Amino acid sequence: MAEKYSPGVQEYIQRGEALTTAEENRRTAMRTMKFDTIAVHGMYGMEAAVANQGSIVEPTYLSPAQHFENSDHMEAALANLMPAWVYNRWDNPTQHFLEETLALLESYLYEGEASACVTASGMAAVFMATNPFLSGSSPMNIVASAKCYGGTFMLFQERYGAERGVDVRWVRDPLNQDEWASHVDENTRFLYGELPSNPGLAMLDISAVAALATEQECPLIVDSTIATPALLRPLCYGADIVVHSLSKSISSSGMAIAGALIARRDIHTRVGPDELRDNFARYVKMVPYRDHGPCLSPFSAVMIMNDLRTLRSRMDQLSRNTMKVANFLNEHAQVEDVFYPGLESMPGHSLAAEQLLLVDSALEDGSSLNRYGHLMGFTVQGGAAVARAAFDQLQLIWRAADLGRIKSIATIPSISTHKQQGESGRKLAEVPDNLIRLSVGGENTNDIIADLDQALTTTSDLLL
């Protein structure tokens, strides 16, 4: 029997319905706008500004908790009968503005609806996107591309596999559809892929893998950190859930760590309550997110939003810069191989050419433009010692275990981002010791190329 509420609580329920309708109207209006307009304005319009002393920029709510007008207001809010944020571990108005903007961008040109949940880091997003499907005691397995970020590898292999007994089935070649199919069965809880992958820049056919996941009634989760919605929106290809490390490509300032999961409505899964299937991001927000506590700082949220406004133009520039650098390294005598989806020699290039497109580029130039992102990798002739020597000679390019910055950054994954998964894990993921991962920034490409050339040339004597 439905719970009865006092007349005072009923008034707040009605007020909440009006707030929900106003927000839905704003969301509907923004879905008619172009990508750049959504990125700049999001859900924060003039009416919201008037309610916030006329502030043109989304306010930063740093208070950890919400004040309520009275007990009726508190009861309606904590019973989820009206929009409220209550406490920062649950929600926050500044976080909400970021979530709504991300949901609109990730579902741009997608016919269905999507919602988002932001987290304190990219790994928190991966955890919150996957853990809800691992409930129950029945035999379960997960199927994931081995070509993924080292933290994701460790979460699946160690935390889920070794500690909780989940059968982790790694796909060595994400381009091989038969390999995906050979691992999936009635006990598969989710499929997981990353593209372009970090650090190997591998691709996968989202539509084909999504069809396999749908057939088995389990969700396909895609990490699209490197592409961002400016170049790829996996929901349009059939994915159920998209995860991002917002600290990387979506932001460029390097001023915040954050993550996000964006899910379409009515995801495919055989486990969990109806609320999980109907609106996964909201379910995560209201239940496991509240209990695990991976909340994002409101200050970090506003820093991410400021970077998000110029996402499309920034990804355009960084992609063009990276294409020039990749072509240079592809011809360099001290370089063995270059890994970048934009190169025709790269496995999966044809698939990348279909999927990685600068959003709305056809509006300006008449046809869609390929942009392949800002991340690349290359192996150095002579092995690990020579690669480390070249790495140490970099003068302009920063040495750090980071990517996505407006400043160019390099790392050696085997001793940094993928070290913890061990030699066998790196072999599985095809991360050689002489691989340098390069995140190309916004500097003039002539200066980036000159720094790479001097570093490689300086260490060429080691090959003699």
Q: How would you describe this protein?
A:
The protein is of the alpha/beta class and 464 residues long. The protein folds into two domains: 111-296, Aspartate Aminotransferase, domain 2 (3-Layer(aba) Sandwich), CATH 3.40.640; 311-463, Aspartate Aminotransferase, domain 1, CATH 3.90.1150. Helices cover 41% and strands 13% of the residues. The chain contains 19 helices and twelve strands. The protein has helices at 7-30, 35-41, 46-50, 71-78, 93-106, 122-130, 150-164, 177-183, 206-215, 274-278, 280-286, 288-292, 298-308, 311-330, 349-355, 361-365, 384-392, 422-429, 445-458; strands at residues 114-119, 141-145, 167-171, 188-194, 220-223, 241-245, 259-264, 335-339, 375-380, 398-399, 409-411, 435-439. Strands 1-7-6-5-4-2-3 form a seven-stranded mixed sheet, with helices on both faces. Strands 8-9-12-11-10 form a five-stranded mixed sheet. Helix 9 (206-215) links the parallel strand 4 (188-194) and strand 5. Helix 2 runs antiparallel to helix 5 (93-106). The radius of gyration is 23 Å and the shape is globular. The chain starts with 6 loop residues before the first helix and ends in a 6-residue tail after the last helix. The model has no long low-confidence stretch (mean pLDDT 95).
